[in-house]
Amino acid sequence: MAITAAQVNELRQKTGAGMMDCKKALTEANGDFEKAIEILRKKGASVASKRAEKSANEGIIVTKISDDNKKAVIIEVNCETDFVAKSDDFVRLAKAVVESAYNTGSTDAKQLLDSDKALNNMLVDVMGKVGEKIEVSRALTVKAENGLIVDYIHMGSKLGVLVKFDDVPVKNDELIELGKNLAMQVAAMNPLCVYREEVPSATIEKEIDIYKELARKEGKPENILEKIAAGKLNKFFAENCLFEQAYIKDSTSSKTISNLMDEYNKKNGTQTKISMFKRFHLGDENK
Question: In terms of Cα–Cα distance, which of 271, 277, 215 is closest to 240?
């Protein structure tokens, strides 16, 4: 049977698929809309199978946070090219992923797709439309019963951060602004952890060994190697622990993040502390 332009356009409106794909599907389905939709969906599954071995290193990071800042979700959705990452269909998919993760409190990307069939179907549909491998690589939900969470997405949506505070008597704009500044600090400086006590002992031992060996090669006496290593280790903490880092937004002063927290607590009569941060970047090796 002859397929009309009106039929093609109607199918396109329903599925979002390209005009030629819609025409081919309707022709193959002999004008049956439901069958044509099924054909288009199978095309998406076929693309998924063909692209399985491809690398999906582009994509976006998306966050969602509750109005009271007590709950936040951060997710990473990947594709093959930056062009697709900026497309309306991909962005719409990523927003659906973060909504689903927020509603379910998911911290497992695979489990999220397995439990949300509609979301999984949407992913397959978008894959068929754009012709690239798409995957949800990470999903994390964070809650703060006696604190609050602040989020930050860097320009381009390739880097996102959550910062959590504990011991927050009441939400206030000043702390939200401070949280945004700390999240930007985390985005820019990529600290290992919040406090030096959280640095793994294996990392500390490795750093000490390196410092001692370098000092030996410089001809330093054995009896002062420990002191030299201790000094360099303090510098390591100052560079890699958020609480001890220099505050980069105010380069004219010698303020550290510790100083900022002290100032806030003194001004507000509180004992609020930074309890954790999560930093998602497309280039992360350990996902």
Answer: 277
